[in-house]
Amino acid sequence: MQEKRDDIYEVNGCRLDIRRGVIERDGRHLRIRPKTFAMLSYLARNPDRVVAKDELIEAIWGKLTVTDDALTQTVKDIRRVIDDKAANVVRTVPRRGYLLERTTSFDGAGWYAGRPLRHAFEILVEESKSAVPLADGWEGPKTSALGQARPVRLSGRDRPAIAVLPFVLDNVASQRLHLLKDGLLRDIVRDLARLRTLFVIAANSLQALSNAALGDLQAGAVLRCDYVCAGTIAVDGPTLRLDIELIAVDGGHVLLSETFAKPLALASTFGQSLASEIAMLVADEVDLAERNLAVRRPLCELDAWHAYHRGLWHLHRFTSIDNAVAENFFKVAIDRDPGFARPYAGLSFTHWSKAYLFDPSRLSEEGRLAHDFAARAVAVDPCDPAAHGALGQALWITGAHDEAVEALERATVLSPSYAFGHFLRAVVEALSGDAKMGIEASDLARALSPFDPHTAANQGTRAVALLRLGRNEEAAAWAARAARHPNADTRVRWVAVLALTAAGRTDEASSLVQRINKENSENGSELFIRTSRMRREDEEMLRDLSRRSGLL
């Protein structure tokens, strides 16, 4: 059935298909909220005329009472979706309404001509630039002809910059929540700043900018940001709803869209916990975006930040070869910026991984190197939670349990939402400290970072704590989950065998034993036990389970 011409419009390079309820650019669907789509459709059907605010409210919201803030936010959302950074397509006519410059109505015949193919080709060309080294002898990324790594981000800053824009109160019922709105903004900004990885725009500047009636992308450009986080607060009966989006300023695409629903009656109690949850979601999404950007950049264009993230990408693949490549990237990052603490912490982790996972026979030497690089990270930035986290795990692997706990406590005091710090505390407590505290720390780390690359290790750590408590069936269930995870390494599978054996699930255990014995060197189980820094009675329990399961 042929489409009606009036159902499809071209709006600033986007294909708006009203009948199908979609908007596309270069053949790709764009994410858009229902109210935003409805308003854009209404404006597209009424081009080149000023549409009054009252007319838009009646057309989009009907008899529901809404504020001008809701209308303004929806217009900002339209501009974001169609990449109208300068507000030249959807124009604001002061004191009157909004005008959409004339759009083109068409049947779509010429819209796709060559565009998806060209777009796919451009992606392949960009991918082809990303060389992934596979050998220890790689010398690192070279500088450009000017002798320095080329800047790679829109803001021109050496770290990603983010602005958390003041939340919009979406309806009349939410107008009394100004204190919650302002408190959330300041708490999220504070939690992001504590992570020490982002350039975070101060809350006072953000609130001062809120009266300028700028779109999200315009605000990001004015503040020289790479990412903006925006959202709305609405009240629906007894429920408070918060919708947030994380937007990449360069390209205007949505990286994260999340809705939080909380009991309105408890609004005075959950502000800090909600802000922490939002901050970690945003930080994790920015980290992922930066890592993907780093992997796609030519080696000669990597600055210290992206060399560090390229190292993280390899580090989280949990293989000995990738660990060696990660080490090289961290060294390059330090060479580019000796005052950047995170690459020192990354180097510490590579040596810790050698001692704990890849070559336990070199525990003493690799543990010392892990400690030395972690200490340098702390010296470079005493307020970086990752530096103290690295120091904590290095102290633990070298046998200084109490000092390790102190360092990890410092990491989570500096940043209470630092999920990796809580995970490291779980490792230390689950293996050689308070097993119940290890379980609590494990659960908190997963709650703060549900899709963390260390999820398998986290679940395996929880299983060890349960084994120490004699809760064998629970331990087996958690260990089996961990072993099925894509990031499960040899030690995780080793824990799974022991837990399954303890629970009497020997058939499941035996299916993993042969693989582990091939991966391990001779006497591998004994080396694993020694690097776990466990109490003597717990070591004997693991040795007994290893013998019963058939592990070498």
Question: What this model shows, in words?
Answer:
The protein is α+β, with helices and mostly antiparallel strands and 552 residues long. The chain has three domains: 5-105, Winged helix-like DNA-binding domain superfamily/Winged helix DNA-binding domain (Arc Repressor Mutant, subunit A), CATH 1.10.10.10; 161-277, Rossmann fold (3-Layer(aba) Sandwich); 295-549, Tetratricopeptide repeat domain (Serine Threonine Protein Phosphatase 5, Tetratricopeptide repeat, Alpha Horseshoe), CATH 1.25.40. The chain is 55% helix and 12% strand. The protein has 22 helices and 14 strands. Strands 9, 10, 11, 12, 13 and 14 form a six-stranded mixed β-sheet that branches. α8 crosses α9 (304-315), α13 (385-397) packs parallel to α15 and α18 (472-484) packs antiparallel against α19. The model is unreliable at 1-5 and 106-150 (pLDDT under 50).
Short description:
With 552 residues, the chain is of the alpha+beta class. The chain has helices at 34-44, 53-61, 68-81, 115-128, 178-194, 203-209, 216-222, 271-296, 304-315, 320-336, 341-358, 363-380, 385-397, 401-414, 419-432, 435-448, 455-468, 472-484, 490-502, 506-519, 524-531, 536-549, and strands at residues 8-11, 14-17, 22-25, 28-29, 50-52, 90-93, 97-100, 104-105, 161-164, 168-169, 199-200, 227-236, 239-248, 254-263.
